[in-house]
């Protein structure tokens, strides 16, 4: 890859390359149901999840991001001096001052490149989108120096033992962003919704686990989706001079996925919003009984939810299904979750089919912050798909027992915030080419090695 002349205003800015890291070990959700003593289907049908990735104390947010970025650079033969911005979105905090991005600079400084803008962005699962937005805005601004940007979105999604633990997971997506991209951000089609809410937060600095109000968080997610979707559609109507735009104008949908069932419900809500704008359209006849329902009631009405799910079942399979594959196999990844959906879509749908298609992307982070944008696929995605090699890599993982998952969580609990230590996790659980923690010294400085 070569750096473009920065005197020209960049066109077709978007994603040029993608890499994804996920742990070597995973556990089947069917086995977790048995282990936790819950009814069969509670996690697999109720949450829509299939497998869950996990780590022990050998990996942290810096090691997994090091792995993702290094693999991106190597697989796509990117010159380290061609990177001018590096943005990290994460809520997995191991230091209250020093950013993860500074650790990633070790990959670039050894190649003589220390002029790279960007630091970490944090707000729950939204940080990855904010980092991506910063990178896009940089490239389209007077600050751009002609080089590429890398966006890293990643987290360790960890929960205390209990109802929320089955929504754990871990993963990182690293993206090369620049001009003349195959996956292009559509200018002007963007919507945001932000407000103050205590739906999910991490106030206890002595624990990796969050405080979660699950039901309220789901409502916040849906409400923010509705707001972003309606604002997006208003801008689409203006841009394309359409009186009543709808989900019919969208080819694929990628949503932040804390668990698959919530994505299913949010996609169904799109049809409710379309119905409210076009109540006399025959295709929404099944929703007529809910025409006079208040908005507040619509958020929690189970009859409406069932009607929407039935109405959108085939649309979900076609427009959302391909993007749901990786998140179902890995679990929640916080900032990486929505980008894992994009990785999954590019991996599951062939390049020819994707050409000129519009991809809507919805990012949500508790607290709360949400945005919706769309992409157009303008050239081949075959190289990205081939180098991701997603299905094969997921199938090659080690399938562990729930007892091993529980033991790994216990190890992390016992070593959280510890210093002057060598992690006890078995290096056999680390895949080749993966960075891991070699030691943490008595000043909490972390040292990493890459497994040969």
Automatic annotation (TrEMBL):
Domain Hydroxymethylglutaryl-coenzyme A synthase C-terminal: 183-451
Enzyme class name: transferase
Pfam families: HMG_CoA_synt_C, HMG_CoA_synt_N
GO molecular function, one term: hydroxymethylglutaryl-CoA synthase activity
Gene3D superfamilies for this protein: 3.40.47.10
Residues that bind CoA: 217, 261, 265
GO biological process: acetyl-CoA metabolic process; farnesyl diphosphate biosynthetic process, mevalonate pathway
Hydroxymethylglutaryl-coenzyme A synthase N-terminal domain mapped to chain residues: 9-182
Active-site residues, Swiss-Prot/TrEMBL: 91, 125, 256
Catalytic activity annotation: acetoacetyl-CoA + acetyl-CoA + H2O = (3S)-3-hydroxy-3-methylglutaryl-CoA + CoA + H(+)
Function: Catalyzes the condensation of acetyl-CoA with acetoacetyl-CoA to form HMG-CoA.
Family membership noted in the UniProt record: Belongs to the thiolase-like superfamily. HMG-CoA synthase family.
Protein name: Hydroxymethylglutaryl-CoA synthase
Organism of derivation: Thamnidium elegans
Lineage: Eukaryota, Fungi, Fungi incertae sedis, Mucoromycota, Mucoromycotina
């Amino acid at each position: 890859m070569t750096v473009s002349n920065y005197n020209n205003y960049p066109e077709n800015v978007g994603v040029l390359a993608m890499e994804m890291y996920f742990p070597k070990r995973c556990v089947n959700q069917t086995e977790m149901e048995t282990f936790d003593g819950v009814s069969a289907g509670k996690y697999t049908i109720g949450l829509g999840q299939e497998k869950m990735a996990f780590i022990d104390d050998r990996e942290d947010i810096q090691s997994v991001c090091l792995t993702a970025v290094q693999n991106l650079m190597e697989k796509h033969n990117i010159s380290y001096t061609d990177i001018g911005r590096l943005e990290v979105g994460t809520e997995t905090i191991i230091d209250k001052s020093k950013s993860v991005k500074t650790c990633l600079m070790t990959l670039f400084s050894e190649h003589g490149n220390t002029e790279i803008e960007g630091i970490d962005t944090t707000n729950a699962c939204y940080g990855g989108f904010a980092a991506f937005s910063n990178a896009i805005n940089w490239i389209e601004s007077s600050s751009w120096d002609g080089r590429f940007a890398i966006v890293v979105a990643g987290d360790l999604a960890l929960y205390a033992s209990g109802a929320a633990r089955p929504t754990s997971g871990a993963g990182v997506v690293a993206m090369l962003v620049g001009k003349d991209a195959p996956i292009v951000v559509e200018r002007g089609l963007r919507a945001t919704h932000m407000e103050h809410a205590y739906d999910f937060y991490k106030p206890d600095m002595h624990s990796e686990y969050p405080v979660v109000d699950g039901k309220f968080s789901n409502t916040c997610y849906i409400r923010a989706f509705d707001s972003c979707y309606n604002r997006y559609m208003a801008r689409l109507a203006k841009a394309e001079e359409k009186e009543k735009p709808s989900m019919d104008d969208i080819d694929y949908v990628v949503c932040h996925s804390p668990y698959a069932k919530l994505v299913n419900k949010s996609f169904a809500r799109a049809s409710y919003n379309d119905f409210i704008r076009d109540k006399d359209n025959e295709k929404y006849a099944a929703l007529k009984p809910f025409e006079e329902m208040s908005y507040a009631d619509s958020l929690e009405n189970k009859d409406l939810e069932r009607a929407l799910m039935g109405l959108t079942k085939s649309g979900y399979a076609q427009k959302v299904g391909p993007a749901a594959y990786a998140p179902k196999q890995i679990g929640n990844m916080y900032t990486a979750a929505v980008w894992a959906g994009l990785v999954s879509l590019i991996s599951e749908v062939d390049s020819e089919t994707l050409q000129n298609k519009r991809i809507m992307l919805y990012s949500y982070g508790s607290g709360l912050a949400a945005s919706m944008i769309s992409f157009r696929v303008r050239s081949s995605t075959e190289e990205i798909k081939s180098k991701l090699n997603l299905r094969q890599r997921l199938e090659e993982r080690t399938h562990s027992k729930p007892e091993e998952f529980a033991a790994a969580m216990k190890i992390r609990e016992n070593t959280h915030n510890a210093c002057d230590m060598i992690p006890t996790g078995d290096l056999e659980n680390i895949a080749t080419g993966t960075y891991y923690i070699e030691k943490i010294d008595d000043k909490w400085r972390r040292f990493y090695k890459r497994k040969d």
